[in-house]
Design brief:
The complex is a heterodimer of chains A (85) and B (150). Chain A is of the alpha+beta class and 85 residues long. Chain A has helices at residues 5-15, 48-58, 76-84, and strands at residues 20-25, 33-39, 68-74. Chain B has seven helices and six strands; from the N terminus they run H-H-E-E-E-H-E-H-E-E-H-H-H. Chain B has one domain (2-138): Glutaredoxin, CATH 3.40.30. In chain B, 61% of the residues lie in helices and 14% in strands. The chains are: A alpha+beta (85), B alpha+beta (150). Chain B: One of its GO terms (cellular component) is mitochondrial matrix.
Chain lengths: 85, 150
Amino acid sequence: MSYTEEYVKNKLLKELEATHVEVEDLSDGCGAKFNALIVSSKFEGKPLLQRHRLVNSILSEELKSIHAFSQKTMTPKEWDKQNSQ
Amino acid sequence: MNIVTRILNNNTSRRLSLGLYLCRGFATSKEAIEKLVTHNKVVVFMKGVPQEPRCGFSNAVVQILRMHGVNYDSHDVLKDEELRQGIKDFSSWPTIPQVFINGEFVGGCDILLQMHQSGDLIEELKKVGIKSALLEAALSESAEPAEKKK
Protein backbone atom coordinates (compact mmCIF):
# COMPACT_ATOMS: atom_id res chain seq x y z
CA MET A 1 0.00 0.00 0.00
CA SER A 2 1.42 3.36 -0.93
CA TYR A 3 0.08 6.73 0.07
CA THR A 4 -0.31 10.02 -1.76
CA GLU A 5 0.50 13.53 -0.58
CA GLU A 6 -3.20 14.26 -0.64
CA TYR A 7 -4.04 11.28 1.56
CA VAL A 8 -1.42 12.11 4.21
CA LYS A 9 -2.35 15.77 4.16
CA ASN A 10 -6.07 15.12 4.60
CA LYS A 11 -5.51 12.67 7.40
CA LEU A 12 -3.32 15.13 9.32
CA LEU A 13 -5.74 18.01 8.69
CA LYS A 14 -8.61 15.96 10.03
CA GLU A 15 -7.03 14.15 12.98
CA LEU A 16 -4.99 17.07 14.26
CA GLU A 17 -7.59 19.72 13.45
CA ALA A 18 -4.66 21.37 11.75
CA THR A 19 -4.96 24.88 10.37
CA HIS A 20 -2.21 24.36 7.83
CA VAL A 21 -0.56 21.26 6.42
CA GLU A 22 2.00 20.95 3.68
CA VAL A 23 2.98 17.47 2.54
CA GLU A 24 5.61 16.82 -0.04
CA ASP A 25 6.30 13.43 -1.59
CA LEU A 26 10.05 13.21 -2.18
CA SER A 27 9.90 9.73 -3.68
CA ASP A 28 8.59 10.66 -7.15
CA GLY A 29 5.15 9.42 -6.26
CA CYS A 30 5.98 5.98 -4.93
CA GLY A 31 4.92 7.16 -1.49
CA ALA A 32 7.96 6.11 0.49
CA LYS A 33 9.42 9.43 1.51
CA PHE A 34 7.56 12.47 2.77
CA ASN A 35 8.25 15.90 4.18
CA ALA A 36 5.48 17.42 6.25
CA LEU A 37 4.82 20.79 7.84
CA ILE A 38 1.94 20.73 10.28
CA VAL A 39 0.39 23.68 12.07
CA SER A 40 -2.05 22.75 14.80
CA SER A 41 -3.21 24.18 18.09
CA LYS A 42 -3.00 20.63 19.45
CA PHE A 43 0.76 21.16 19.71
CA GLU A 44 0.26 23.99 22.17
CA GLY A 45 2.20 23.41 25.39
CA LYS A 46 3.77 20.20 24.08
CA PRO A 47 7.52 19.77 23.72
CA LEU A 48 8.89 18.74 20.34
CA LEU A 49 9.11 15.05 21.16
CA GLN A 50 5.45 14.88 22.26
CA ARG A 51 4.36 16.70 19.11
CA HIS A 52 6.20 14.26 16.89
CA ARG A 53 4.88 11.32 18.86
CA LEU A 54 1.35 12.61 18.33
CA VAL A 55 1.89 12.80 14.58
CA ASN A 56 3.54 9.38 14.52
CA SER A 57 0.61 7.86 16.39
CA ILE A 58 -1.86 9.23 13.87
CA LEU A 59 0.20 7.84 11.00
CA SER A 60 1.24 4.64 12.78
CA GLU A 61 -0.31 2.37 10.15
CA GLU A 62 1.03 4.44 7.24
CA LEU A 63 4.55 4.69 8.71
CA LYS A 64 4.90 0.95 8.37
CA SER A 65 5.23 1.44 4.63
CA ILE A 66 6.47 5.02 4.50
CA HIS A 67 10.21 4.60 4.68
CA ALA A 68 11.15 8.16 5.61
CA PHE A 69 8.93 10.77 7.19
CA SER A 70 10.37 14.14 8.06
CA GLN A 71 8.18 16.52 10.02
CA LYS A 72 8.05 20.05 11.27
CA THR A 73 5.41 20.78 13.89
CA MET A 74 4.25 24.26 14.85
CA THR A 75 1.50 25.91 16.81
CA PRO A 76 -0.53 28.60 15.00
CA LYS A 77 1.34 31.22 17.06
CA GLU A 78 4.75 29.89 16.05
CA TRP A 79 3.60 29.69 12.44
CA ASP A 80 2.41 33.32 12.44
CA LYS A 81 5.62 34.43 14.06
CA GLN A 82 7.73 32.70 11.44
CA ASN A 83 5.68 34.17 8.62
CA SER A 84 5.90 37.70 9.94
CA GLN A 85 9.68 37.55 10.12
CA MET B 1 56.44 -1.37 12.86
CA ASN B 2 54.97 -4.68 11.82
CA ILE B 3 54.51 -5.76 15.39
CA VAL B 4 52.79 -2.52 16.30
CA THR B 5 50.47 -2.80 13.35
CA ARG B 6 49.70 -6.39 14.19
CA ILE B 7 48.90 -5.56 17.80
CA LEU B 8 46.69 -2.69 16.71
CA ASN B 9 44.89 -4.87 14.20
CA ASN B 10 44.40 -7.59 16.75
CA ASN B 11 42.96 -5.17 19.25
CA THR B 12 40.64 -3.61 16.74
CA SER B 13 39.28 -6.88 15.48
CA ARG B 14 38.87 -8.20 19.01
CA ARG B 15 36.97 -5.10 20.02
CA LEU B 16 34.85 -5.32 16.88
CA SER B 17 33.93 -8.92 17.44
CA LEU B 18 33.19 -8.21 21.09
CA GLY B 19 30.91 -5.37 19.99
CA LEU B 20 29.08 -7.60 17.57
CA TYR B 21 28.77 -10.29 20.17
CA LEU B 22 27.26 -7.85 22.65
CA CYS B 23 24.73 -6.67 20.11
CA ARG B 24 23.73 -10.08 18.84
CA GLY B 25 23.72 -11.79 22.15
CA PHE B 26 21.76 -9.45 24.35
CA ALA B 27 20.14 -6.65 22.46
CA THR B 28 16.67 -8.09 22.22
CA SER B 29 15.43 -7.67 25.75
CA LYS B 30 14.34 -4.43 27.33
CA GLU B 31 16.99 -4.78 30.04
CA ALA B 32 19.73 -5.21 27.47
CA ILE B 33 18.67 -2.11 25.56
CA GLU B 34 18.46 -0.19 28.81
CA LYS B 35 22.09 -1.11 29.39
CA LEU B 36 23.04 0.09 25.92
CA VAL B 37 21.28 3.45 26.22
CA THR B 38 22.76 4.19 29.63
CA HIS B 39 26.27 3.02 28.78
CA ASN B 40 27.34 6.50 27.67
CA LYS B 41 25.92 9.99 28.16
CA VAL B 42 25.05 10.11 24.48
CA VAL B 43 24.06 6.98 22.58
CA VAL B 44 23.00 6.78 18.94
CA PHE B 45 21.27 3.98 17.06
CA MET B 46 21.90 4.46 13.38
CA LYS B 47 22.30 2.85 9.98
CA GLY B 48 26.00 2.29 9.38
CA VAL B 49 28.79 3.64 11.54
CA PRO B 50 29.81 7.27 12.20
CA GLN B 51 32.74 6.92 9.80
CA GLU B 52 30.37 5.62 7.14
CA PRO B 53 26.69 6.33 7.71
CA ARG B 54 24.41 4.43 5.36
CA CYS B 55 21.42 6.73 5.41
CA GLY B 56 21.07 10.49 5.01
CA PHE B 57 19.23 10.90 8.30
CA SER B 58 21.84 8.97 10.25
CA ASN B 59 24.50 11.02 8.53
CA ALA B 60 22.81 14.25 9.63
CA VAL B 61 22.84 13.11 13.26
CA VAL B 62 26.53 12.19 13.01
CA GLN B 63 27.38 15.59 11.51
CA ILE B 64 25.48 17.50 14.20
CA LEU B 65 27.14 15.59 17.02
CA ARG B 66 30.51 16.10 15.35
CA MET B 67 29.94 19.86 15.25
CA HIS B 68 29.27 19.82 18.97
CA GLY B 69 32.34 17.68 19.56
CA VAL B 70 30.36 15.00 21.37
CA ASN B 71 31.77 11.56 22.13
CA TYR B 72 29.06 8.96 21.90
CA ASP B 73 28.31 5.27 21.60
CA SER B 74 26.89 4.25 18.26
CA HIS B 75 25.10 1.07 17.31
CA ASP B 76 24.59 -0.04 13.74
CA VAL B 77 21.07 -1.44 13.42
CA LEU B 78 21.80 -2.79 9.94
CA LYS B 79 24.10 -5.28 11.60
CA ASP B 80 21.40 -6.55 13.91
CA GLU B 81 17.78 -6.97 12.88
CA GLU B 82 16.68 -7.74 16.43
CA LEU B 83 18.25 -4.56 17.74
CA ARG B 84 16.65 -2.62 14.88
CA GLN B 85 13.19 -3.73 15.96
CA GLY B 86 14.07 -3.82 19.66
CA ILE B 87 15.08 -0.18 19.84
CA LYS B 88 11.92 0.89 18.00
CA ASP B 89 9.80 -0.97 20.53
CA PHE B 90 11.87 0.33 23.43
CA SER B 91 11.37 3.98 22.60
CA SER B 92 8.02 3.65 20.80
CA TRP B 93 9.55 5.47 17.87
CA PRO B 94 9.10 4.14 14.34
CA THR B 95 12.32 5.26 12.68
CA ILE B 96 16.12 5.17 12.80
CA PRO B 97 18.28 7.09 13.78
CA GLN B 98 17.49 7.46 17.47
CA VAL B 99 19.40 9.60 19.92
CA PHE B 100 19.56 9.08 23.69
CA ILE B 101 20.99 11.54 26.18
CA ASN B 102 21.50 10.34 29.74
CA GLY B 103 19.51 7.21 28.97
CA GLU B 104 16.53 9.20 27.83
CA PHE B 105 15.14 9.13 24.32
CA VAL B 106 15.57 12.56 22.74
CA GLY B 107 14.33 12.01 19.22
CA GLY B 108 15.38 11.26 15.69
CA CYS B 109 16.99 13.36 13.01
CA ASP B 110 14.27 16.06 12.77
CA ILE B 111 14.27 16.71 16.49
CA LEU B 112 18.05 16.73 16.88
CA LEU B 113 18.33 19.14 13.95
CA GLN B 114 15.76 21.49 15.45
CA MET B 115 17.41 21.29 18.86
CA HIS B 116 20.69 22.13 17.18
CA GLN B 117 19.15 25.12 15.40
CA SER B 118 17.35 26.45 18.48
CA GLY B 119 20.35 26.08 20.79
CA ASP B 120 18.49 23.55 22.97
CA LEU B 121 21.05 20.88 22.17
CA ILE B 122 23.81 22.91 23.86
CA GLU B 123 21.59 23.16 26.95
CA GLU B 124 20.72 19.46 26.99
CA LEU B 125 24.39 18.54 26.68
CA LYS B 126 25.28 20.96 29.46
CA LYS B 127 22.77 19.25 31.76
CA VAL B 128 24.73 16.00 31.50
CA GLY B 129 28.10 17.70 31.87
CA ILE B 130 29.10 17.88 28.21
CA LYS B 131 30.37 21.22 27.00
CA SER B 132 29.48 21.66 23.37
CA ALA B 133 32.40 22.54 21.10
CA LEU B 134 30.19 25.17 19.51
CA LEU B 135 29.72 26.85 22.86
CA GLU B 136 33.45 26.79 23.52
CA ALA B 137 34.12 28.33 20.13
CA ALA B 138 31.60 31.08 20.85
CA LEU B 139 33.10 31.71 24.29
CA SER B 140 36.68 31.97 23.06
CA GLU B 141 35.56 34.42 20.39
CA SER B 142 33.84 36.66 22.90
CA ALA B 143 36.71 36.29 25.36
CA GLU B 144 39.23 37.85 22.99
CA PRO B 145 37.91 41.42 22.97
CA ALA B 146 37.56 41.26 26.76
CA GLU B 147 41.24 40.48 27.12
CA LYS B 148 42.14 43.41 24.94
CA LYS B 149 40.37 45.72 27.38
CA LYS B 150 42.80 44.78 30.10
